[in-house]
Amino acid sequence: MIARTLAAWACAARPGEADRALADRSVLDTLAVALAARTHPIRAVAAALGGDAARWATLAHVIDFDDLHLPSTTHISTICVPTALATAGADPQLARRAYLAGAGVMARLGTALGWRHYTRGWHATTTAGAPAAAVVAGVAWGLSEDQISRAIALSVPAAGGVQRAFGTDAKSLQVGMAAQAGVRAARLAEAGASADLRAVEAWMELVGGDPQHPQVTDPGSELDMVPGGLAVKVYPACYALQRPIGALRRTLADQRPDDVAAVRVTTPRGTVTPLVHHHPTTGLEAKFSLEYAVATALLDDHSGFWAFSDEAVCRDEVERLVGLTDVRLTDSRGEGLLDGAVDVEIELRDGRTRHGSLQLPPGSPGNPPTPAEMTAKVADCIASAGLDLQPTDLTWASGADLLRTHLGPTP
């Protein structure tokens, strides 16, 4: 049974050096983006969720700057880092271990749910996230393998969330609810609640997953605890926008927006699955708009926090460029947000055309962020939060105290 198999893996797996390095980068990245949301209006709303894991996970996800596990299309750290910090107390080694156990389960379970699950409209971060959070809390609290098995099964009733929520508060709130569901399931298992472990297989079949996928039937077959690694975002928007913005910036950075007569973006159909807003009117909607990605890449020196604000989206020049953008979708045998490559063609007023193409966006596992890029991202997040901190302050040892101090229940 999947629940028993994953629980056994989580209890037995021991992190290596590469796993620990990934965990340390993940806590740095997640703390930075969560703190950057300290003045976001969602903070007051999230207070109603109750519980540190739920509130912190919501804030870690709301600006869409958190890391991503590409094989499963899930934001692993936005669930697993807050849950580990909320449940492991002041023990950084335990927090890191709990994070990696939950992250490994989330990667494997999300991969088994698969692209079919995602393209049906499920929000895989929340569906795979609830069982993962149960594992994080279970490991942090020293639950037995049997208890963690039951915690995974007990998280199933709350393992939901849909992409129709994208562009609204509901997207980040359902991430918080997934973290909360996992913590609650672990508490229920600890208290002795019974569960039919086969509920996990039944649930996977109902939502389009593959209960026979090797990632969940043989989770120990991978050398790394988080197979495939994690992609770090360079731009504070949906991961599906990282590549088109990167293509425009790397090859067409010196192009004057006033000279643009038309823009054509050609990309495989699956890569635009979460990009549901074609004429965004808010910064949150812009994070899921391929047309806006073109506009900010051409207009802004840096597609950072301000570029995805309501003020930036409402610029007259944005409306013009969005209207000039034609998105052409191609069919492909591949799957996922990085299927194939994105090609961009800009037609200028004088009749000339310029071309750009990109396969691996900056920050992806095949093109990982440099130390300088990570430092710059974290510094931008800290500055946005208005805090007097250094990147070296954002660690497993200090994380829970930082979040409790700066992300309390009310602004």
UniProtKB/TrEMBL annotation:
InterPro entries, A to Z: MmgE/PrpD_sf, MmgE/PrpD_sf_1, MmgE/PrpD_sf_2, MmgE_PrpD, MmgE_PrpD_C, MmgE_PrpD_N
Region (Disordered): 352-371
Residues in the signal sequence: none
Domain named MmgE/PrpD N-terminal: residues: 57-201
Biased composition (Pro residues): 362-371
Transmembrane regions listed in the UniProt entry: none
Top-level taxon of the source organism: Bacteria
MmgE/PrpD C-terminal domain segment(s): 235-384
PANTHER family: 2-METHYLCITRATE DEHYDRATASE, 2-METHYLCITRATE DEHYDRATASE-RELATED
Family according to the record: Belongs to the PrpD family.
Record's protein name: MmgE/PrpD family protein
